[in-house]
Amino acid sequence: MNDQFEPVIVGFLCNWCSYRAADLAGTARIKYAPNLRPIRVMCSGRVDPQFVLQALRNGADGVLIAGCHPGECHYVNGNIKALRRFSLLKKTLEQWGIEPERVQLLWASASEGTILAAAVDRMTEEVRALGPLRWSEKVLGEKAAVQAALEEV
Amino acid sequence: MTDNGKPKLAMYWASSCGGCEISVLNIHENILTVDEVFDIAFFPCIADFKVKDVESYPDGYIDVCLFNGAIRNSENEEMAHLLRRKSKVLVAYGSCAYEGCIPALSNLTTKQATFNKVYFDNPSIDNPDKVLPQMVTEVPEGDLTLPNFYHTVKSLDQVVDVDYYLPGCPPEPPQIWAVLQVVVGALTEGKPLPPAGAIIGAGTTALCDECTREKKEKAIKRFYRPYEIQPDPDQCLLEQGIICMGIATRSGCGALCPTVGMGCRGCYGPPDGVEDQGAKMLSAIASVMDVGHESMEEDDLEEVIQEAMDSIADPIGTFYRFSMSHSILKRVKNGKGDA
User: Fold this and answer.
1) Would residue A17 count as lying in a domain?
2) CATH of residue A39
3) Predicted model pTM
């Protein structure tokens, strides 16, 4: 064990492409950073910006949204909506003082296990370099949600 | 003060503009009924009361306290605790007490930057000696103290328990009157009060429900600032590319702003089921824009979408104008202008 900071990256992966890319990365035994906490959503267009903010507020150091390539969306244009949301979200994150590397959007098709794995590796290093976010403690001066929950038990 | 048996009403301003007090007076001749039914126990805007008067009341003496204004400094917080103790029913009255409102926009910056702007870097101020207010100043007669100015503006429910919320900047007179009638009914005829924690004097759905503008398919190419466009008098403002917060805002005001050609500012806060008004607005805006098509190349797509989004100036200040304290993130990480 070393003291290297291990970022927590919450991943919203679309059911039809990116979650399968992660599946493929697993079955192909591709070795990549274990920092991603994948959450399967039906479409990247389902990712409400509230999910992203909630993740950042509650202890995530970064958020990865991954979906099908434009033109390949299972629902025709859900990923275009995701891109529009992400573009506007990026502008607000800048105003919130959150570094752009912490929230990223990735297109990864079901066959692109290597692309997903490489993106997770790259993002993990980028977020590691930025250091922990710990919004509740560092920005709001509150206890981390997890710590507070543990104390209640 | 002699007790005449009437229910006791209080209204207090914390960090606010005074508009909420005016809104109560704006219920017109009904104010006479308010005076008939209630005994005013504390209302610094219209009558001469001192804090020590409130301190001398037994706990729970005030039946209804309308508390307006955000919690900006330690004095606001002390008054919130005092009035909570002395009141049976505490109402977060108006957007500031409910969710931060305009004062909470300073959560986009820092205490230091706010002080710099107010006391040094301001065209109307002449402060060559760089004098700043101090919490304690020693003078021959003793120590003079000022409240502590907080780094982050809070809503009332972030410092004390709140029974009801009455949204609006300010709340609309018919809504205020409806709420006062419910309270009067409960006090005089034993009618039931709304459940604790309820948002009263407002609707539950989005403002668009009560907006009479004609709504068609939304296919917005870019956004305009109000001075850049002459809005069509009948069509939905959002469809014309004018930011209107109506789609992410609670109904109840009667869509006053959109009716006169101004996009909704969002002062009634988020509708039922929405936690973060700004994030929901962001999400909705992205959905109703018609920019970028799945047939485009990935790089071009990013570019045209980013360009369209850049037509929105200051998204946080626009989407969270009233709800900063109740937002998920609550304040910015590194305030702009922070040394």
Assistant:
1) yes
2) 3.40.50
3) 0.92
Class of CATH domain B8-103+153-199: alpha beta
What are A95-133's pLDDT values in tens digits? 999 999 999 999 999 999 999 999 999 999 999 999 999
Task: Select from B320, B323, B328 the residue whose CB has the most chain A CBs within 10 Å, as the one to mutate to test that interface.
Answer: B328
Compute the nearest-CA separation of A52 from chain B (Å).
9
Contact A63, B253 (CB under 8 A): no
- Is residue B231 within 8 Å of residue B237, measured between CB atoms? yes
Interface check A115 vs B, CB under 8 A: no
Residue at A117 is within a domain: yes
The answer as to whether A134 is a domain residue is yes
| Beta-strand relationship, A103-107 and A62-67 | parallel
The alpha carbon of residue B308 is apart from the nearest alpha carbon of chain A, in Å, by 9
Would you say B42 and B49 are in contact if contact means Cβ atoms under 8 Å apart? yes
Report if residue A80 sits inside a domain: yes
* Sheet containing strand B87-93, strands side by side: B39-42, B8-13, B62-68, B87-93, B164-166, B198-199
Which residues 6-45 of A have a C-beta within 8 angstroms of B?
Answer: none
Contact B309 A73 (CB under 8 A): no
Peptide bond into B103 cis (omega under 30): no
Residue ranges covered by each domain of chain B: 8-103+153-199, 109-151, 207-326
Contact A95 B316 (CB under 8 A): yes
How large is the ipTM? 0.91
Q: How far is B268 from chain A (nearest CA, A)?
A: 19
* 8 A C-beta contact, residue A81 and residue B286: yes
Counted domains in chain A: 1
> What residues in B contact A65, CB-CB < 8 Å?
none
Is B296 in Cβ contact with A89 (below 8 Å)?
Answer: no
Q: Are B62 and B41 in contact (CB under 8 A)?
A: yes
Residues of chain A in contact with residue B315, where contact means CB-CB under 8 angstroms, are: 88, 91-92, 95
Which domain does A42 fall in, by range? Answer: 9-152
Task: Mark yes or no for CB contact B292/A80 under 8 Å.
Answer: yes
pLDDT in tens, chain B (339 residues): 457 788 999 999 999 999 999 999 999 999 998 888 899 999 999 899 999 999 999 999 999 999 999 999 999 999 999 999 999 999 999 999 999 999 999 999 999 999 999 999 989 999 999 999 999 999 999 999 999 999 999 999 999 999 999 999 999 998 898 888 888 888 878 888 899 899 999 999 999 999 999 999 889 999 999 899 999 999 999 999 999 999 999 999 999 999 999 999 999 999 999 999 999 999 999 999 999 999 999 999 999 999 999 999 999 999 999 999 999 999 999 754 443
